[in-house]
Amino acid sequence: MTYDRPFIQRWLNEGHRTCPQTQQVLSHTILTPNHLVRDMISQWFKEHGIEIPKPVRDIDEEVITNADRHCLNSLLQKLSLSVSDQKEAAKELRLLTKRMPSFRTLFGVSGDVIPQLLNPLSAGNADIHPDLKEDLITTVLNFSIQDNNKKIIAENPLVIPLLIDSLQSGTIQTRSNAAAAIFTLSALDSNKHIIGESGAFKHLINLLDEGHLLVIKDVASAIFNLCIVPVNRGRAIQEGAVGVILKKVMDSILVDELLAILALLSSHPNAVEDMAEIGALPCLLEIIRESTSERTKENCVAIVHTIYFYDRNTWREIREEEKANSTLSKLAQSGTSRAKRKVNGILDRLSKGPSLTHTA
């Protein structure tokens, strides 16, 4: 999708992590200019004799003032004082980094922001006030929205461990924002590797399993983004992602988003083995048969395709479904281009009978 840059930048800065038009989870938040569309617009103005409007300045290009720097430094210093000072400063930082892009930009040009910001959390104080922790983790999330900050934040040894800790404890908003920060940071492939190696999957999947409605979408977004890197798929599977995801799908929870993750994971042999043990195939075929969502059907049939070609002994179950309901044949007529391609692959093999079945 192509958007007017100031609009989509505002959308991202407000913390949204989905496409405004399709509602699909964004794999990253890095903006890429659409030169073709821009040239077409410019050509239209020229053909109609209209002066090309000056571009709207990106709201993230606000000037950083000395007052901003002074304010940031003052608030960071207060984080080393009394608990009441810390709470006041953390609350103000949370609000400023949400509302003012210039404050998020300051993070990248001030070298010691992270140690000062996380000082109250790094002291190992188990009695830290929940509101203070929430405000500080949310400030990390707000800083991470700025693309130039993502690498700096993720590579600091303090940050990822504290985000992982915040997945496990604190207010439900703290846990949600910690997952959202992991998602935002994972826009960079290098960060995907850092986060995957940190042991974050165990806690993300545990949080997904708990199923808090305020948290589950942020967690699913983070897992999906991390699993774009193939090595992380094995880590997610090892931590039980397949079973947890299928359980949620069977309970009709966040079906589109979770099936997208499962479709990614299904490229790994261990995921197919887990799905076979759980008995995922009947559930997937039922979803294809009953769902009205093209995206859901597409991801389901992609997973079924992988299962079938991994273990041809499933041909009988798929054939019986086809005899009873023509599930795949119907999808071959009405599905998306990707769904049709997967369905036709299955039907072609299915038509050749069980003599070709084998377990890969």
Concise account of the structure shown:
This protein has 360 residues and is an all-alpha fold. It is 70% helix and 0% strand. It is built from 22 helices and no strands.
Describe the secondary structure blueprint for this structure.
Blueprint: H1 5-13, H2 35-47, H3 66-78, H4 83-99, H5 101-109, H6 113-122, H7 130-145, H8 147-155, H9 159-168, H10 172-185, H11 189-197, H12 200-210, H13 216-226, H14 230-238, H15 241-250, H16 255-265, H17 269-278, H18 280-290, H19 294-310, H20 315-325, H21 327-334, H22 337-351
Helix pairs in contact: 3-4, 4-5, 4-7, 5-7, 7-8, 7-10, 8-11, 9-10, 9-12, 10-13, 12-13, 13-16, 15-16, 16-19, 18-19, 18-20, 19-22, 21-22
CATH superfamily of the largest domain: Leucine-rich Repeat Variant
Q: Largest sheet, described in full?
A: none
Order of helices and strands: HHHHHHHHHHHHHHHHHHHHHH
What's the number of helices?
Answer: 22
What overall geometry do the principal axes of the alpha carbons give?
globular
Number of E-state strands: 0
Detail the poorly predicted runs.
57-62, 355-360
CATH architectural arrangement of the largest domain: Alpha Horseshoe
Overall mean pLDDT = 87
User: Helicity level, as a percent range?
Assistant: over 70%
CATH topology of the largest domain: Leucine-rich Repeat Variant
First-to-last CA distance: 39 Å
CATH C-level of the largest domain: Mainly Alpha
Number of domains: 3
Structural class: mainly alpha
